[in-house]
Amino acid sequence: MLYQLQNLSAEEQTLVQRSPIWVTLLIACADHDIEEEEIDRAKEIIHIKSFAVQNDVKNLYKNLDQHVDDEIDFALKSLSSDGKERLAFLEQHIAKLNDIFPKLDSTYATQLYNSLVSLATSVARADGGLFGINKIGKDEAKYIHLPMLKKP
Fold it and tell me: Which residue range(s) make up the domain with 79?
C-alpha cells in the first residue's frame, strides 16, 4: 500500500490507484470509440510517470505500471457497450475522487489532480489530427480538464 493512501478505506485506495486508468478510458471513450493508439499512449505515459515524475505520485504510477494491462482489461470489462452509458459511468467514477481529495495530504491531492489532468491531455493528443493540427478532438476537449473534479 502507498503510504499516502493509508488513511483511506480499501475501496478509496483502489479508486485512487485505478484513477489513471479511468481517466485514460474517459478520454479514449469521449468520441464513443476507443482507439488503440490512445490506450497504448496511456500505457507509455504511465510507464514514463513511474520513474520521471518528481513527486510522490510517482509511486502510484510505479505500482500501476507493473500490471497496467490487467487493470485496463478489468476496467474495459466493467464498461457498457453504449457510449453514453460508458461516459456517464466513467464521469461518476472519477468524480468520487472529490470526496477522497480532502482525506489526502493537500500536497499529494494537488499532485494527483495535476497528474490526472496531464494524463488526460496526453491521451487526447495520441489520436486524431492532421500533421499535428487539431490533434485534440472537440469531444475529448470537453474532458481533458476533468470537469467532474474539483481542484483540491
Answer: 7-141
What pTM was estimated for this model as a whole? 0.88
Count of structural domains, the chain: 1
Sign of CA dihedral 111, 75, 9, 96: positive
| pLDDT tens for each residue of 14-56 | 999 999 999 999 988 887 777 777 788 778 888 888 887 778 8
**Residue 139 CB-half CA count within 13 A:** 16
Strand partners for 130: 133
Tally helices (H) and strands (E) across the chain. Answer: 8, 0
Gap between the Cα atoms of 76 and 72, Å rounded: 6
- 131 confidence band (pLDDT: 50, 70, 90): very low
Cα distance between residue 17 and residue 128, in whole Å:
28
